[in-house]
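INSTRUCTION: Work out how this chain folds

Token vocabulary: learned, describes local backbone geometry

RECORD BEGINS BELOW THIS LINE
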Amino acid sequence: MGRLIVISNRVSVPSAAGAAGAQGGLAVALNSALRQQGGIWFGWSGQETAEFTGHLDMQRNADVTTATIDLEPQDVEEYYNGYANRTLWPLFHYRIDLTEYDRNFGEGYERVNERFADAVFPLIESEDLVWVHDYHLLPLGSMLRARGIGNRMGLFLHTPWPPTRLLTSLPFHERLVASMLEYDVIGLQTTEWLESFLHYVQKEMGLKVNLDNSIEYNGRRVVARAFPIGIDYAEFQEAACGDVAREACQRLKASVRGRKILIGVDRLDYSKGLGERFESFSRFLADHPEMAGNAVLLQIAPPSRGDVASYQQIREDLERKTGHINGAHADVDFVPIRYVNRGYPRAELAGFYRAAEIGLVTPLRDGMNLVAKEYVAAQDPDDPGVLILSQFAGSALQLKDALLVNPHSVEHVAETIKRALDMPLAERKRRHARLLESVREQDVLHWLEQFVQVLANNERDAGMPPHDQAA
């Protein structure tokens, strides 16, 4: 097996000291794989340049080589803010009402993917495995094929895949999916998204899908599979048991003075259902006035994509709802919603999770949602909290012992909050034990190994049926 060439929109550069403490679980896992197997992580630096030159900034940190390029402001506006986040992101999350179709966005998306292809092409050696990540770079594989790359290439999509009727609203949708079929392996988060993808290629492209979910395309065999992503369980457990987490837990508990804590941790995004969550909590307080001064919702929501109008709007809406709810239910020494627009290191988050009696994870649509898994991993097994999880999160298919809710139903979520707070210890422990087993066994390293084994055409070792080498 050759090196691993990871390509993503942004690159997470590891630090020599404590990379895991500052990075998400995906970055930790990919950095670990690159250290073990050798290779390069390539992507956009996050910086802008007046004129695109294709200059590569090569670095080596903590035994991982990274390569990044800068983009022009027009690239960022059309490719990132435009097609990626105003066209594909809302469409893939079933928000066709927010989806914008602009020819300039599409042209910028293809231009930046071509620039990625030109820049990474010289770095790829004949035996390397190429692993492309997410909706920003769907056509990159076909562009690398056009430049003569014959390597095994895989794509992993971290978002949902929309139903065919929604996807066909996208101009040139068939061309986009055809470009994806130049990969050897296409990975999605869940069987639901996989089935939606396979339905599209059968109905709209007339392609044959085999019983093992592989696709016959231009004389080649493209493997499409569900690879549910997990957290770095061992690393997160270590963080949850450390001094930083312990102090964060104690600080949060002391600040609420014996009140029950509900916690939500989400990027500030309309797909996360934060407005509906706030309304559900308000309904809970109204329906149970005895709890009005005894329950606090801590919502941590770091801003994202601030240059996109819909994200500016959701921030304004949430600030208005927070003020209204707090005005209705607050007292001189108490506010029911603590709404925080900043991020925290993962060790601190682990402490906050552990302090909370309820983890409130209620996205309207989510590819997976790792916050749900982090909440489970952070709990005290002898006195665990309760996970309330949206049935529309990809993780709901694995975490069946959570309390599953319809986040669109304010009444349902409010009733479930009361049920969670009243749940006996024996039931909490029983549910948590089963949730923890799933989180532990299907962690991010399991996900990584499964995908790379299939990508390396070594399916027998991955527990998959063997197949003939693709033509």
In short: DSSP finds 17 helices and 16 strands in the chain.
